[in-house]
Structure formats: structure tokens, C-alpha cells
Specification:
Blueprint: E1 3-8, H1 13-28, E2 32-35, H2 37-42, H3 52-56, E3 60-65, H4 67-77, E4 83-88, H5 103-111, E5 116-129, E6 132-139, E7 142-146, E8 154-160, E9 163-170, E10 172-176, H6 184-187, E11 199-205, E12 215-218, E13 223-228, E14 236-240, E15 244-248, E16 253-267, H7 272-279
Parallel strand pairs: 1-2, 1-3, 3-4, 4-16
Antiparallel strand pairs: 5-6, 5-16, 7-10, 7-14, 8-9, 8-13, 10-11, 11-12, 13-16, 14-15
């Protein structure tokens, strides 16, 4: 590795400070660090500034922030196959791999080849208008089709590979990747899925029935959701990773499947998923008053 990108959350001073310190250390090792222009200016290293596209194409991208920062950069870096190392400056840090005080030693391990890469499914969502693809989006965690701002249910016709599954009367439907199974899908009652399992998880949000459960399908399948919104009412909403959104027309459909590329996350411990279940989601912990 010769060029290493540093992508700190600009709203976290500690992340910016560590990015500056690591940039100096990388230069002392004969490596070329790059930062976003704002971050580079904030740490007094404007000469290291690079745009998002250049950062996303480095030999390794170090992301200093929480899961939200990881999700944003995964959409930029994943199409280029760039390995990403997440440094946790957030609350849960379920996608991030290490704590801030481990960064320097972790880079040493990467340079020595002592690491693995976890290939994570990226979701591809295509909005179909008048039977034609109108827009394409990508997300690491989940794709959600949901109601607008009014407090009312919507009817969501759901198909898998063209086979009708059900019409859900609900607030929305989540289609999650294994990585996203511990995010919004989990809050809606979906299962926890190991990131190496090749599936998609379909979970309705607040369904108006007692006999609905999540549906787990192979990630080789395509899920299609067609909303039934009435003219004159609020449109439906498409959301990816809780960060990107588009209003949907009353006749629009959304087709969701696995993208042609994966997100590549740097890992040092193959059992870290189970550790995070225990330490960050408090899996199996009993509470007493």
C-alpha cells in the first residue's frame, strides 16, 4: 500500500485530531496520506486535500466516525473495491472495526499483511416509473419503502422474482442486507444475520396483522415493492441507509437486489461479529433492578 485515505467525521473534533496525527505518522513512514479538503484544512495540512472520488480510490480508506460515516463512505468506496477500515467514534460502531487507540498498531498489521477482508453485500435499488428504470441507488444496510409524513398505513404489494408474496398493510417495508440486519430491521423485529450469510431480509414495519414475520430469501433473488398510494395523498418514500431518499409516485415500483460489487471491510478477528453482539448490542445480558 502506498496511498491511504483518511475520512474523519468533520463534526467530531477527536476524529479530526487523530486523522491529523496519523497523517503525520504515515508521511514519516514514507506513505502518502490524503484527506478531504475540509479535514485537511482543519488539521493544517491543506496540501493533503483530495476530493471524495480520489479518497474512494486509495489503496485503503480509513474512516474515523460512527456507523453513519461508514455507510456514507461505503457507497463511494465499494464500487472501486477499496478496503475500508472503520475507527469507532460513534455510539454503537457495529460496522467499525477498531477503537481510536488501536489505529496505529492496526495500520502496522495491515502493512504487514496481518488482516482479512470481509466482503459485504451492497444493495441495489432501482426505481421503476412507467415500466422503465428511472433511478438507481446503492446502500450497505437497507432499502426502505415507507409512508409519507401522514400517520396512516399504506398497502405495499411485495414480489420475489416476480412471484407475488403478500400485500402488507403497514408503515413500510425494510429490505436489509446481512450487515443491515442489526440496524433498522432489528428494531422492526427482524432476525440477526451473520454478515457472511448470502441472504436478504424482508421485514414489514408496524404491520396491521398478527401473522406477519420477516421473510429471508437468497440474495440472488430480486424483491419488488409496489406501493398503493392514492392520488392527492402524500407520496411514498424510498430511503437507503437512512441517508438517501426519494419520493415515489403512486404508480412507482422499487426493485431491490444484490449489487454487482461488494463493500470490502478490513477485519482482524473473524469472531468480531459475535463480540459486537455481546459488547455493543448486549446480547443475552440480563437486567435487574
Amino acid at each position: 500500500m502506498k496511498t491511504i485515505g483518511l475520512a474523519p467525521n468533520p463534526h467530531k473534533p477527536d476524529a479530526l485530531q487523530l486523522a491529523g496525527e496519523i497523517a503525520t505518522w504515515l508521511e514519516s513512514r514514507g506513505l502518502k496520506p490524503l484527506l478531504s479538503p475540509d479535514a485537511a484544512a482543519a488539521v493544517g495540512m491543506a496540501h493533503l486535500g483530495a476530493d471524495d472520488e480520489r479518497l474512494a480510490r486509495t489503496d485503503m480508506l480509513i474512516i474515523l466516525g460512527g456507523d453513519g460515516t461508514m455507510l456514507r463512505w461505503s457507497r463511494l468506496a465499494a464500487p472501486h473495491g477499496t478496503p475500508m477500515l472503520g475507527v469507532n467514534f460513534g455510539h454503537y460502531g457495529f460496522i467499525t472495526e477498531i477503537d481510536p487507540d488501536e489505529l496505529q498498531s492496526s495500520i502496522e498489521r495491515v502493512l504487514a499483511g496481518d488482516y482479512a477482508v470481509s466482503e459485504r453485500v451492497v444493495l441495489r435499488a432501482v426505481v421503476i416509473t412507467d415500466d422503465k428504470p428511472a433511478a438507481t441507488y446503492y446502500g450497505l444496510n437497507d432499502v426502505v419503502v415507507s409512508k409519507g409524513p401522514l400517520a396512516r398505513m399504506v398497502a405495499l404489494h411485495t414480489f420475489v422474482n416476480g412471484k407475488f408474496i403478500a400485500t402488507y398493510a403497514a408503515d413500510g417495508i425494510i429490505v436489509a442486507s446481512p450487515t443491515g440486519s442489526t440496524a433498522y430491521s432489528l428494531s422492526a423485529g427482524g432476525p440477526v444475520v451473520h454478515p457472511d450469510v448470502s441472504v436478504l431480509v424482508i421485514t414489514p414495519v408496524c404491520p396491521h396483522t398478527l401473522n406477519v414475520r420477516s421473510l429471508v430469501v437468497p440474495d440472488s433473488e430480486k424483491v419488488q415493492i409496489v406501493g398503493q398510494a392514492r392520488e392527492g395523498e402524500a407520496d411514498l418514500m424510498l430511503t437507503l441507509d437512512g441517508q438517501l431518499g426519494q419520493h415515489l409516485g403512486c404508480s412507482d415500483a422499487v426493485e431491490i437486489g444484490k449489487a454487482e460489487f461488494a463493500a470490502r471491510l478490513v477485519q482482524f478477528d473473524s469472531q468480531s461479529f459475535y463480540d459486537k453482539l455481546q459488547t455493543r448490542l448486549r446480547w443475552g445480558e440480563r437486567y435487574s433492578t
